[in-house]
């Protein structure tokens, strides 16, 4: 199940606003090839641009309407400058002003005050919906339709806002779409009688989707499904209705679930006793360079910490404030380790497999420094073993059904992942568990594979199925070289509160009643 909108708490003195983005007449990639656009939103703050978020990628579209919702805190008294950049994710390379997302199609800067944004009410009511189709029209000659559903909120001036776009169910005229959760604000502006328009298409890889039909409803009508009965609508193709004398419908859409939920905040869970368990995994492959060389990414310079140390300090020092015992498991991968010097992809950095925990982040750093002279950097860069290792206790935690421990895995790596299929499988499985993964790219390698794990092209899919949550946050450290000291941690940890709330909300797990354990450390 997926969540449709940011449920993080609003900053004091701010109003939460939602931004929805669409584009018109984007440039063709070539004379007849349409782009695969995606949008990156950045906010200018503290003298630099910082990323707010990215949309999904839409295949073959010059006029995309993105389903992704950008949520921001709006401060009346501040000039908040935004930059919207549109990239062609299917284009070649990052030349001519492009990025790892692909060539840049165009950009625009404006203030948040100039935008027609929708303010989010302070309600934290969400609704969980589940639809399926029945005997939809077949639009394909050699196979069955690949249907997906789009839901629009119709405003009083008859303009529309895309609320949700389901996944595509291939080769199926009676598709069962995954359940999803949206805020009542997004769905109907908390007005149960507001018109909601639902449109069904047959997906085409070119981006030119075939129209199957549509219907209109209200949230009041949808609520009939909350009592256990199904709500059914005829899917109407209005062109067929006008032209075909005996036309009845193009199939039916059935709502099987409409469940109201109150979404708690991250702070609710922390105050209820939830602990954030932080685990570190460090890349010790040979591509990092000989640690004795000053050109190595692992070189210990007494005058300045290397990039691995900088990342550990920046991110770890924030995470340790949410962990009562301040003890962190630390692992390495891709090295030959003593005494047999066999390659390991999940060895304890302190060489104690029975107790890989280190005392505070300072202990992780010391174990890392002691470890380097004792190992041989080797390879390959396999990350699936360490993901699976951390996922195992998370799976045990899931069985309890209690919000007691949520795990965050920080992977520091310098290069291309060697076991990408296995890594995708591991992430898809982990998306069902109380676990988030942060990957920081060290150095100047090609990190395009990481973008796939990051879900930049939509929810990750593998042989294990489709991820139920987006749990991976990736960032190349090189993008933060000129940023303030706290910028990296702020960026990579920004998604964790949302992911925590999304996980426990999807399981129907409310915050605990116990107070968080007291800590002997002084207040930060």
Can you give me a brief rundown of this structure?
19% of the residues lie in helices and 32% in strands. It contains eleven helices and 28 strands. A hairpin with a 7-residue loop joins strand 13 and strand 14.
Tally of strands:
28
List low-confidence stretches. 1-13, 94-98, 516-524
| Distinct helical segment count | 11
Structural class, by secondary structure, is alpha+beta
For the CA atoms, what is the radius of gyration? 24 Å
Average per-residue pLDDT, rounded, comes to 86
This entry's quaternary arrangement is single chain
Residues in helix, %: 10-25%
Written account of the structure:
The protein is α+β, with helices and mostly antiparallel strands and 524 residues long. Helices cover 19% and strands 32% of the residues. The strands form seven sheets. Strands 17, 18, 21, 22, 24, 25 and 28 form a seven-stranded mixed β-sheet that branches. Strand 10 and strand 11 form a beta hairpin. The longest helix has 17 residues. The chain is globular, with a radius of gyration of 24 Å. The N terminus and C terminus are likely disordered.
């Amino acid at each position: 199940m997926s969540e449709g909108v940011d449920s993080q708490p609003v900053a004091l003195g701010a109003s939460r606003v939602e931004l929805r983005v669409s584009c018109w007449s984007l440039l063709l990639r070539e004379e007849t090839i349409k782009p695969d656009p995606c949008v990156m939103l950045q906010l200018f703050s503290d003298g630099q641009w910082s990323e707010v978020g990215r949309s999904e990628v839409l295949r073959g579209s010059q006029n995309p309407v993105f389903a992704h919702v950008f949520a921001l805190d709006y401060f009346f008294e501040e000039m908040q400058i935004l930059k919207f950049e549109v990239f062609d994710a299917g284009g070649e390379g990052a030349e001519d002003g492009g990025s790892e997302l692909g060539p840049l199609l165009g950009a625009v800067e404006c203030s948040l005050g100039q935008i027609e944004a929708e303010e989010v009410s302070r309600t934290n009511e969400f609704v969980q919906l589940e639809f399926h189709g029945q005997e939809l029209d077949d639009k394909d000659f050699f196979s069955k339709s690949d249907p997906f559903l789009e839901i629009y909120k119709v405003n009083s001036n008859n303009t529309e806002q895309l609320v949700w776009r389901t996944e595509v169910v291939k080769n199926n005229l009676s598709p069962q779409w995954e359940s999803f959760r949206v805020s009542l604000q997004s769905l109907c502006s908390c007005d149960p009688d507001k018109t909601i328009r639902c449109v069904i298409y047959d997906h085409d890889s070119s981006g030119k989707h075939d129209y199957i039909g549509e219907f209109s409803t209200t949230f009041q009508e949808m609520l009939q499904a909350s009592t256990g009965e199904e709500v059914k609508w005829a899917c109407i193709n209005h062109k067929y209705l006008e032209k075909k004398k005996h036309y009845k419908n193009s199939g039916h859409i059935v709502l099987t679930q409409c469940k109201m939920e109150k979404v708690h905040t991250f702070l609710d869970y922390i105050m209820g006793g939830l602990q954030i368990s932080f685990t570190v995994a460090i890349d010790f492959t040979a591509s990092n360079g000989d640690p004795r060389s000053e050109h190595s990414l692992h070189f210990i310079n007494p005058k300045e910490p290397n990039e691995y140390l900088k990342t550990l300090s920046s991110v770890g020092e924030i995470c340790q404030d949410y962990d009562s015992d301040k003890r962190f498991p630390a692992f390495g991968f891709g090295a030959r380790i003593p005494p047999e010097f066999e390659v390991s992809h999940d060895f304890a950095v302190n060489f104690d497999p029975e107790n890989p925990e280190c005392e505070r982040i300072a202990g992780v750093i010391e174990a890392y420094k002691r470890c380097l002279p004792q190992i041989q950097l080797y390879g390959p860069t396999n990350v699936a073993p360490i993901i699976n290792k951390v996922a195992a206790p998370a799976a045990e935690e899931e069985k309890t059904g209690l919000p007691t421990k949520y795990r965050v895995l920080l992977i520091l790596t310098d290069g291309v992942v060697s076991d990408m299929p296995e890594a995708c499988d591991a992430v898809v499985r982990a998306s069902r568990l109380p676990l988030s993964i942060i990957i920081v790219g060290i150095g100047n390698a090609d990190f395009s594979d990481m973008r796939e794990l990051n879900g930049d092209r939509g929810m990750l899919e593998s042989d294990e199925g489709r991820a139920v949550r987006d749990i991976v946050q990736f960032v190349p450290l090189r993008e933060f070289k000129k940023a303030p000291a706290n910028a990296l941690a702020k960026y990579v940890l920004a998604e964790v509160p949302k992911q925590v709330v999304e996980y426990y909300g999807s399981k129907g797990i409310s915050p605990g009643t116990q107070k968080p354990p007291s800590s002997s450390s002084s207040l930060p």
